[in-house]
Amino acid sequence: MQNLDIFINTITTFNACIRDIQKMRGFYVFLSDHYKITPEDLSDLLRSELVNLVSAMDRFIHEFVRIGIINSYTNKTPQTNKCKSIPIKFSTLNKVIECQSRKTPPTCNEETAEYWINNEIKTILKFMSFQKIDSIKDALSYIWDLDHKIPVIMSKMHYPFPESTSNANQKFLEKKIDLIVSRRNQIVHEADYDISISSKQTININWLDDTILFVKEFVYSIYENISGDSSYEKL
Description:
Distance between the termini: 23 Å
Mean pLDDT: 93
Number of strands: 2
Largest sheet: 2 strands, antiparallel
Shape: elongated
Strand content: under 5%
Radius of gyration: 21 Å
Structural class: mainly alpha
């Protein structure tokens, strides 16, 4: 179990993002019910929900991994094999050693090891995207030394997996994450247009509700498995 105080802000912020998505849905329902606007004319609100959902997941992974790496480099938790391979500059390591060997309490951020490791890790991670399933598994390896992560993540997900075996459901999960991200990319980079019919693709509200549930449970399970915290708020 990790130090809960270190990670709690990551799940709190993720929940704040989910609440923003819920507010957007409330606006969708209000316009539909009170102004009788057609679902087609409101569909961009649903697309915004999906974009924000994937962004919330990506941000959670970034922050969770960043904090976990800092935790391990400041000797609060053991380093994973992948974490040991991070190319930390010698100048940064020297600053960390200097801070850790200081006899007096720090008087500013620059006198803490966390400050120097955080700057280094933020620079390394900011060019990475943690959306597709392979990149998520790779990112979690920085802080979670477990070979087969997905079955463990699935075990804490309260989601109605459709297949009859664990292996089939693992393939379902991995494919679903990638399909969700692909659809998000179509919206962001292609305006969700299907060039074969020269119009926007439809977005189904039931599919979106299922997707939101799936991503929430996926993130919650990652958080719970690594932090050990089960007392956090679930939306």
